[in-house]
Design a protein that fits this description.
This protein is an alpha/beta fold. The protein has one domain: 4-Layer Sandwich (Purple Acid Phosphatase, chain A, domain 2). The strands form two sheets. A five-stranded mixed beta sheet has the order 3-2-1-9-10, with helices on one face. Strands 4-5-6-8-7 form a five-stranded mixed beta sheet, with no helix packed on it. A hairpin with a 2-residue loop joins β4 and β5. The longest helix is centred in the N-terminal third of the chain and has 10 residues. The protein is globular. It starts with a strand and ends with a strand. Belongs to the metallophosphoesterase superfamily. YfcE family. It is an enzyme of class 3 (hydrolase). Keywords: Metal-binding.
Length: 167
């Protein structure tokens, strides 16, 4: 049976938005696994996401305080239907990202990251998929806020979709 993932990052609540948009809350409730790549900003939004998610995998980002760093750490690893997943907030400059990811995360099939607020979808030389869902609340130079949905079946990614978020 497929596992539905929702990829989030850089929610920045309440600094960039008072709350997550209703569309994102619905997506959290519909997902089998929510993956958050950091910059929650407050423990309260992490608590709210965790309360509504069937399963949460998350990390802390550079805008998260000591409480969130203690709770989540800076790297998360999990296996979802045989797919080896790693989550971090920051991967450094886009130039050379795939090679750095291969070196830092061997034996990883999917690396989810954030920080830039810019969606990213590439494959490293070793075959690792790198996904950044952007930000649903702070679009920066993007036309709209975004999240990603992914389906995992038998250890493989399917249906990777960048979802625009209405404000």
């Amino acid at each position: 049976m497929p596992t539905r993932l929702l990829l989030l990052s850089d929610t920045h609540v309440p600094t960039r938005a008072r709350d997550l948009p209703p569309q994102v809350w619905h997506a959290i409730e519909a997902a089998d696994v929510v993956v958050h790549a950091g910059d929650w900003t407050t423990p309260e939004i992490a608590d709210a996401v965790e309360a509504r998610a069937a399963c949460l995998v998350g990390v802390a980002g550079n805008n998260d305080g000591p409480q969130l760093h203690a709770r989540f750490g800076e790297v998360a690893r999990t296996t979802i239907e045989g797919l080896r997943v790693a989550v971090v907030h920051e991967t450094g400059p886009k130039q050379g990202r795939e090679l750095r990811a291969d070196a830092a995360f061997p034996e990883t099939d999917l690396l989810v990251f954030g920080h830039s607020h810019i969606p990213w979808d590439t494959v490293s030389p070793a075959g690792m998929r790198l996904l950044n869902p952007g930000s649903p609340t702070d679009r920066r130079r993007q036309p709209v806020g975004t999240v990603m949905t992914v389906t995992v079946t038998d250890g493989r990614l399917h249906d990777v979709v960048l979802v625009p978020v209405a404000r």
